[in-house]
Design a protein that fits this description.
Length: 248
């Protein structure tokens, strides 16, 4: 495995160490995950990836009190109440090997960069959808066979941990009435947005072609409102050309 040396100032180092401790990871783990995300690669995780290695006494006290309260609130459900009582014991006695049970169901954070990327992708596909809707049948045919499908949002691969997290965030945004033009892609007919094969690398290539076109159009005051917020045939061809994997 290759080694990369990175120099940062003391404050950045201290902040990274604090962030890593808070996530129960090392600085190397933290930076490695960020690098994988920048490269569009799946970030290696395991079943305890969201479980801190240690908790402060104050954190343990706060969590134990919450579980005590939940045990009382669920006193009519012996199974649920027993779970919370066991978590109180885990936390008060500091059984770090059992912390994963306390944090079960908590996913790793989706970074601001990831959230911004997902929003950019949804914006792109909304524009592409609106642009395709403006075309007549002859114009759509001129794009080539299968072009309309390739220029449409196809969801994410639920078998890929990173793509699955992006899909969950997309569903969250749509559930809160944003990007409603793409809502149908998350219905039962479309398997809740599951593409069943990786899509992110393709989307990133398309986005790289789309963004310069979109930025120039939005700034062009000479365009009509309709032309400024939709792509023409030539521009759609440019984005479409980024869809296939590049040949070596």
């Amino acid at each position: 495995m290759a080694t990369i040396t990175l120099r940062v100032d003391d404050k950045a180092r201290d902040d990274l160490e604090a962030l890593a401790r808070g996530r129960g990871a090392t600085v190397s783990d933290l930076l490695r995950a960020s690098i994988f995300e920048m490269l569009g690669r799946d970030v290696p995780t395991d079943d305890t990836s969201s479980t801190p290695l240690t908790l402060t006494v104050v954190e343990r006290c706060h969590l134990a009190l919450q579980h005590e309260s939940l045990a009382m609130l669920h006193s009519d459900d012996e199974h649920e109440a027993d779970y919370h009582r066991r978590m109180v014991e885990v936390l008060t006695k500091g059984y770090t090997g059992e912390y994963y049970r306390v944090f079960a169901g908590i996913s790793p954070e989706l970074s601001r960069r990831d959230c911004r990327l997902l929003r950019d992708l949804l914006d792109m596909f909304c524009v592409l959808k609106a642009s395709l809707d403006r075309l007549d049948a002859a114009e759509k045919n001129s794009l080539g066979e299968g072009a309309e499908v390739r220029l449409s949002f196809q969801g994410f691969d639920f078998n890929d941990a990173y793509e699955s997290r992006l899909a969950n965030y997309a569903q969250h945004l749509i559930d809160t009435d944003r990007w409603q033009d793409l809502a149908e892609n998350f219905d039962d007919e479309h398997e809740r947005g599951n593409s069943h094969s990786p899509r992110l690398a393709t989307y990133l290539r398309m986005l790289e072609s789309f963004q310069p076109i979109w930025s120039a159009k939005v700034k062009d005051s000479g365009l009509s409102h309709d032309d400024r917020y939709a792509l023409n045939l030539n521009e759609l061809h440019t984005v479409l050309a980024a869809w296939p994997y590049p040949r070596k």
